[in-house]
Amino acid sequence: WTLTIKILKLQKFCRKMIIHVFPDDNTFVIFQSQINTNGFLAVEEPKVESEYLGKMPASFGMIAIFLGDLDNSDGVGKVYYRQDSRPSVLLRTIDHISQAFPQDDEIKPTHALIITWENVAAHGEHGRGDGLDRKRNTFQLVVASMASASYAILFYPREGLQYISTPVAGQSVPVHAGFSQGLVQAWFSWSSSQGPYYRIATDDEASVRQLSEETNSGRRGVWVYEIGTSPFFSSITPGLVTNLSPEEGVAVGQVEQVSESPPRNNGEQQEIEFPPYEHEEEEETPEPELPPTIYPVQYQPRYPVVPESPQTSYPEPVQTTPFFSKIVFFQRMWFVFFSAVFAYSSETCASNRQKCSSFADCKDYTNGYCCHCRPGFYGNGKDCVAEGKPQRMNGKVSGRVFVGNSPSPLEFYNNDLHSYVVANDGRAYVAISTIPAGLGPSLQPLSSLGGVIGWAFALEQPGYENGFSIIGGVFSRQAEVTFLPGNERLTIKQEFKGVDEHDHLVVSTELEGRLPEVPHGSTVQIDPYKELYQYGRITSSSNRDYTVSLLDGSVQTKTYQWRQTITYQSCPNDEAVRDVQPTQQLSVDQIFVMYDSGNQLIRYAMSNKIGSIHGGPPEQNPCFTGRHGCDTNAACRPGEGVQFTCKCSTGFTGDGRQCYDIDECRETPEICGSHAVCNNQPGTFRCECVDGFQFASNGKTCVEVDRPIDHCQRGTNNCDIPERARCSYTGASAYICSCLSGFVGDGHTCQDIDECEQGRCHQDAVCYNAQGSFTCQCRPGFHGDGFQCAPELEKTQCERDRESIQVSSDTGSFSFFRPRPAVSQYIPTCDQHGAYEPTQCHGSIGQCWCVDGNGQEVPNTRTGPGQRPLSVIPPPIGPTTRPDVSPVAPGTHLLFAQSGKIEHIPLDGYSMNKGEAKALLHLPDRVVIAVAYDCVEKMVYWTDITGPSISKASLEGGDIISLVTTDLESPEGLAIDYLARLMFWTDSMKDRIEVAKLDGSQRRVLFDTDLVNPRPIVADPSYGRLYWADWNRDGPKIEMSNMDGTDRTVLVKDDLGLPNGLTYDPESQQLCWADAGTRKVQCMDPNGRNRRTIVEGIQYPFAIVSHGRNLYYTDWRREAVVAVDHTTDRETDEFLPQKRSRVYGIATTPTQCPQAYNYCSNNGGCSHLCLPRRSGFTCRCPDVVDGSCVERNL
Q1: Is 1052 exposed, middle or buried (0-12, 13-18, 19+ CB in 10 A)?
Q2: Of 682, 859, 931, 1047, whose CB neighbour count within 10 A is largest?
Q3: Which residues lie in Low complexity bias regions (predicted)?
């Protein structure tokens, strides 16, 4: 390539550069640019001054840094430019770009064009004659280029601008700064229209003055813009850092006041960032080697700029031009770049055939395999669809979006998205449901939210392919949208998951950020646009204009910037992928957007074509224009000229103008083979194996299911005898053998443990070993259970009296039984400490009397038969009723937490007695999350995340008792085992589940792995089971385990969003949960079967509890307690607290505890924790052991 430089010796001169380049496709293209003394860089031949001064935007493309009627004819003002690729210059350029775009990486410019307008004055302004007192400005433009993007850096004097306007046609007009595309040719037309003009400063002089006072790069007076990707300036994206860096000393909004004409010495130049000219010997670093796609340019002689004024001598500027950037015409287009992730390995088709589509063939290559769609189908081989057949896309949309200046976001979860594309003419229709009225109108400008399916199935022009043909249906798309001028930002993330069994493309979409508000009732119009899709790149950017028509008849034109990335998998051996045009253009027109407030639907429609990036006469064949009249289930086949034929898609029959579905199941009944049923679908069919059979590895043949055998139940296991070992069924046909407590071995052979050799009994006790067990007995003179023995204490007077009376009545015969007194004999009664009971009675005569401490009868206290003496009852000892809490009346109640209090609602059967609802407990400055109830002691337990702590109080009133106050961060779930006297809780910050006694002692961590956001937890004491939910957004799940931490199992992991609430009903044995993501209440049995939906479309449930036929859940958005009848699957009642705020945990207070066997009665004989499990229990030690502790399984 060659470089030619011309210096025109004119009062208004420009330097013109012609660059000849050879792009990758070997097409010879000429690009040109011109540097103008009026403060701009033109990318095509500029017009005369009268056609652009004061008449912006201009009809030619330009970068205007300080465009006005400027003058350098006095010899003081000068214009320099050079091309530089030295490391020191490039590093300084990288520093500015990286500070403006902190999230961008791999910024590696290969060269920079530096243009300096030094000490230029406004034309027509005259001073005293020597020119030194004229107002002058110095400013600079740097264009940095690299393979994937180009950037423009604009420098303005930090000490302020000397002037901000120039005379035009006798008037003072503010200068312009911005980027103009000029005239662009319309698509499929020979006419031209004015392209976009991105303005940096407005017509307001204050806006121009701010060029030197503010920034978008963190440095005062420095403005950085990404201006697109070679070979097109595709878009303008401003820097993201509008706050000044700390070293600047002044924050935005507190700009230092700089006078319009700051004082400076005559002849002093304003400071600039890059020197306008430098001699080569100033830096001896060798020039870096350029990438192979850039060719060295011939060295050009240096041209001095000769000053016209001979009175003053200035250094002669020198220009070096070793390299030059590709500066090219603007185009009104979008760029979309792709990052190909080669996911295929070196495996072969023999083991991977099932990974290909059923409409594809697998082919082995030297380095692996590839899938190829068969004739009549298109795609990437892993996903294939029939040519000409309409395509559908289904998915879910979730988001958290702020609208306008609203401080609160609008949240929505799993809203349905449906799309339909008529593939043979490129028309796409998209609808998203349940969009609230506060958000729907403002989503109208985002037609590309669902329009990506238009690109995937766009009408293909000759030699070009749509997205699905190239990359299939599995890819990721992320877009960053910035709205101007308000700088609102929105992030769009979409995961396309391929084609499902119904031939529908599946997608999930997430929105996060802020949208400018579009008033309700307004309509939005989007003009036709084009996108450039480049394969193999990783970044993109674009600008989009849209028009908002308001109800009052006014019209607003607005803009947003779009940056996106698409990542997909590809096969490196696929010749078809390598032959894809590297750059293709998507043309979108007939765009229709509408928000249907009545049905809460947002609708988009558009027509899409994929073809060449170059202009030219449009294709006339109807197959390429979409005007062919073929059936929607037919492919259009082009012929000569405008001739074409219509052919029905695979799975349809007809003449192409009308196509009918082929019922393969009826015409070929044996098509699915044995043990399978055939289900016909439009254009295809589906085979399903009958019960008891499943598909083999080839995905076609149905084979009998290998039914599992429970060898433990059948008795066909090889474990030791049941008296010594236990057989545990683990699923499928597997089992585990383990020795019973008191035996040791591998479960197949177990031997008795002699516990007496281990010193298990007290030192003052005798140990007796037995098979699988042992006993301890205190020695004579000691009493206790053998594990703890204490010396016999001296008997009290009451005890001696009882013993003497019993001995005196002994018959003298030896017996192991306690002697019995004579029927008429009176025997005193002693309390637990051996003292006389205050009231003594003689049953034989039916009289009672009071006694003193020595057992002597108090006179005048003896009563007649059947009566008890009067006595003074001492006041009760312990907690008393709190003055601000009313004790709860007998009966079943609902307890629920609301910020700083716990309230109760009496239940009349299953109806909420709302009139009697009141506060049970006031907890100011606390946030109560979980609530649980102990039916034995009538105590309410709760967790508090502000302490954090776990506490309890009596339903009958009394003081608050703190149970756990240390080593907590965010306790959010709580469960009570009323049988084993245990409590369990989840901590969502520490990501663990713990257990402790009901008094908070003997804490033990059960689980601290594979937990992200555990919240609800419930217990099933009768079976020793725990259930909990983890609302991890990346993988929500519901799990189960025994209370001792064994047999942990994931019960549910599919179709979950935010499972906040969980409850277990022991009567119906149903596990139910409330999901704020799917907005459903669902139930199933404890084994994960028979899952069903109770209600759906609810708002934001938090907690749930079961009582009889009803489920009661709390809802954050409704700020209410809601009743649901799970036998009729409908909502029956709602309670709104008097003070409206978020409601949290909920529990019931049953009048009596459910009857069940208590394996941990008397603590199961454990030294510390007795933890139940199915049909047994386990003795476990707390994490902090006080003294000796023994662990064992029973």
Answers
A1: buried
A2: 931
A3: 251-261
Tokens of 630: 């073929």
Asked if the model's pLDDT at residue 10 lies above 60, the reply is: no
| Token pair in block for residue 717 | 């296991």
Among 170-174, 422-426, 572-576, 1070-1074, name the one with the lowest average pLDDT.
572-576
CA-to-CA distance for 4 and 17, rounded, in angstroms? 6
For the record, the structure tokens of 233 come out as: 């300036």
Taking alpha carbons only, the member of 288, 327, 294 closest to residue 152 is 327
Task: Indicate if the pLDDT at residue 270 is higher than 70.
Answer: no
pTM of the model: 0.39
3-state helix, strand, coil in the chain (%, to 5): 10, 40, 50
Write out the H or E segment, with its range, that includes residue 727.
strand 725-731
Of 398, 346, 327, 360, give the one whose Cα is nearest residue 143.
Answer: 327
Task: Give the single-character DSSP code of 1181.
Answer: -
Give the model's pLDDT for residue 185. Answer: 58
Q: What is the pLDDT of residues 662-710, one digit of tens each?
A: 888 888 888 888 888 888 888 888 888 888 788 776 667 888 877 778 8
Distance between CA atoms of residues 918 and 901, nearest Å: 10
Task: Give the DSSP letter of residue 291.
Answer: P
Helix (H) or strand (E) holding 431: strand 427-432
1097 CB-near residues (< 8 Å, 6+ apart): 1079
Distances (CA, A) of 231 to 30, 183, 646, 752: 11, 18, 39, 84
Nearest to 1148 by CA among 1103, 1094, 1086, 1083: 1103
442 and 515 in contact (C-beta within 8 Å)? yes
- Most confident range, picked from 221-235, 622-636, 798-812, 894-908: 894-908
The residue behind tokens 């920034």 is: 215
3-state secondary structure string across 798-865: HHHHHHHHHHHCCCCCCCCCCCCCCCCCCCCCECCCCCECCEEEECCCCEEEEECCCCCECCCCCCCC
Which residue from 899, 950, 897, 891 is spatially nearest to 924, judged by alpha carbons?
899
Give the residue, 641 or 271, on which the prediction is more confident. Answer: 641
Q: How far is CA 290 from CA 98, 817, 972, 1158, in A?
A: 22, 108, 60, 81
Q: End-to-end distance of the chain based on CA atoms, in angstroms?
A: 88
> How many other C-beta atoms lie within 10 A of the C-beta of residue 828?
16
Tokens for 500? 């499902």
Are the C-beta atoms of residues 1115 and 1140 closer than 8 Å to each other?
Answer: no
Q: How far apart are CA 842 and CA 821, in angstroms?
A: 13
CA distances from 319 to 142, 361, 655 (A): 15, 62, 71
Whether residue 42 contacts residue 34, with contact meaning beta carbons closer than 8 Å, is answered with yes
Confidence of residue 834 (pLDDT cuts 50, 70, 90): confident
3-state secondary structure of 410: strand
DSSP reduced 3-state for 474? strand
Report strand pairing: 601-611 vs 459-460.
parallel
- Contact between 904 and 897 (Cβ < 8 Å): no
Alpha carbons 76 and 92: distance in angstroms, whole number:
28
What is the C-alpha separation between 628 and 650, in angstroms, rounded?
Answer: 19
User: What was the pLDDT predicted at 191?
Assistant: 57
Query: What integer is the mean pLDDT of 496-508?
Result: 84
Q: Which residue has the tokens 């031939």?
A: 503
Tokens of 45: 């031949």
Cis, peptide link before residue 869, omega less than 30° from 0: no
List helix spans (H) across 597-652. Answer: 622-625
Q: Based on the number of CB atoms within 10 Å of its own CB, is 56 exposed (0-12), middle (13-18) or buried (19 or more)?
A: middle
- The answer to whether 255 and 249 have CB atoms below 8 angstroms apart is no
**Helix (H/G/I), strand (E/B), else coil: 1000:** coil
pLDDT value at 1146 more than 90:
yes
What's 671's DSSP letter?
A: G
